[in-house]
């Protein structure tokens, strides 16, 4: 019975458990959030490419 009481009062390893729980929460959050961010970054990259292409076309026309 004394061993059980000591075991229940022992807090060694509690920091490790907290760290694992927090780290897994961050990983899960990253997995959930990444697809929409990736899609948005791709869309913005396409828009920037289109604008750069149009600017280049305008510069060529102005040069002629």
Structure write-up:
The protein is mainly alpha-helical. The protein has two helices and no strands. The chain has helices at 2-9, 14-63. The chain is rod-shaped, with a radius of gyration of 28 Å. The termini are far apart.
Helix content percent band = over 70%
- What would the principal axes of the Cα set say about the shape? rod-shaped
Rg, rounded, reads 28 Å
**Main β-sheet, in a few words?**
none
Order of helices and strands: HH
Average pLDDT: 91
Structural class: mainly alpha
The total of beta strands comes to 0
Summarize the structure.
The chain is mostly helical. The protein has 2 helices and no strands.
Notable characteristics:
single chain; 64 residues; mainly alpha; 0% strand; rod-shaped
Write the SSE topology.
Layout: H1 2-9, H2 14-63
